[in-house]
Amino acid sequence: MAPHTLRQAVIDPFVEFFSRDGLLSGLAILAFLFLYKLGDNMATALATPFYIDMGYSLSEIGSVAKVAGLWASIAGGILGGIIMLKISINRALWLFGFVQLFTIVPFVWLSQAGHTLTGLFLAVSGEYLGVGLGTIALTAFMARETSRAFTATQFALFTSFIAIPRTVANASTGFIVEAVGWTLFFVICVIAAIPGMLLLLKVAPWTERTRGNSEEIERKERAEAAKSASS
Predict the structure, then answer these.
(1) Where are the alpha helices (DSSP H) in 103-163?
(2) How many CB atoms lie within 10 A of CB 148?
(3) Number of structural domains, the chain?
(4) CB within 8 A of 34, min separation 6: which ones?
(5) Burial class, 38, CB count within 10 angstroms (exposed 0-12 / middle 13-18 / buried 19+)
(6) Which residue range(s) make up the domain with 58?
(7) Distance between CA atoms of residues 69 and 57, nearest Å
(8) Cα–Cα dist 221/89, whole Å
(9) What pTM, to 2 d.p., does this model score?
(10) How many helices (DSSP H) and strands (DSSP E) are in the chain?
(11) How does residue 160 score in pLDDT terms, banded at 50, 70 and 90?
């Protein structure tokens, strides 16, 4: 049923969310949603200025970097959905999170290597593959954490919340680059990805079942979450 008042649209979904497993658990989940893709958001916020500073022409950026980023993001989303049908959402968050983290590292090298089209294609492809994988896992996690009574409103609120790091990254990364340069900036992006990974110990432990003890229930849950993430 569609909400008809502000209380039904915002207050009741938040009350249900924080009362489900307690305030600390709810805050940990929100902190995780904020931090899980922070490193990625920072690394991609100033992509075009970085390419230009490295000596790439606009035609090279359009034909190499943008194409590589597009296909890698799409491939990451598709591959992520397939993998989540085989493993749990928790394990996908761990696996894809490490991919996100380590695919930022080639940009540290690229910032030193300068103009190399092959290096640009490989670095951008790897980074945006991680972006696609991480996005699909995070979307499935959000779908799982919503209650049936407030699915639409809670998912919308979660989606709005994870957009905040992107805004923070867009507003702050330029100052960081000016202060420390591109190489150290990408090192900072790698470091910024670590707190979100550490929060997985609390919100999505590797060995914990998502709900119940039945493998059949877990398998159905993964399929439903993957379907929700792909739609």
Answers:
(1) 105-113, 117-145, 151-162
(2) 5
(3) 1
(4) 161, 162, 164, 165
(5) buried
(6) 28-230
(7) 17
(8) 9
(9) 0.81
(10) 14, 0
(11) confident
